[in-house]
Amino acid sequence: MAVIMIDASRGLVQQDKAIADKVCKQAKSCILVGNKSDLLTDKEWEVFRLKVETDLRMIPWAPLVRASVLTGQGVEEAI
């Protein structure tokens, strides 16, 4: 099981894509966690979600959880 934690306030970076590609090639179970989402408006989160869906389409089975480690939002859902 892989958990890919993405800094939602920065957006996807090349390292996130590389890790997702490795997960795909190894056919691992995966969950995507958009951390620091408390810094985003709902509209910004939607833009981020669509970008993740598009750029990480190689792992369509991986759910994306909106989370904030700072506030605890979404942490239970991610676990």
Overview of this protein structure:
The chain has helices at residues 14-25, 42-55, 75-78; strands spanning 2-7, 30-35, 64-66. It contains three helices and three strands, in the order E-H-E-H-E-H. Helix 1 links the parallel strand 1 and strand 2 (30-35). With 79 residues, the chain is of the alpha/beta class. The longest helix is centred in the middle third of the chain and has 14 residues, at 42-55. 38% of the residues lie in helices and 19% in strands. It has a three-stranded parallel β-sheet, with helices on one face.
Strand content: 15-25%
Mean pLDDT score: 93
What about the largest sheet?
3 strands, parallel
First-residue to last-residue Cα separation? 11 Å
Q: What fraction, in percent, of the residue positions are helical?
A: 25-40%
Radius of gyration: 12 Å
Gist of the model:
The protein is of the alpha/beta class. The chain has helices at 14-25, 42-55, 75-78, and strands spanning 2-7, 30-35, 64-66.
What is the secondary structure topology, with strand pairs?
Blueprint (H helix, E strand, L loop, with lengths): L1 E6 L6 H12 L4 E6 L6 H14 L8 E3 L8 H4 L1
Parallel strand pairs: 1-2, 2-3
Notable traits:
79 residues, alpha/beta, three-stranded parallel β-sheet, 38% helix, globular
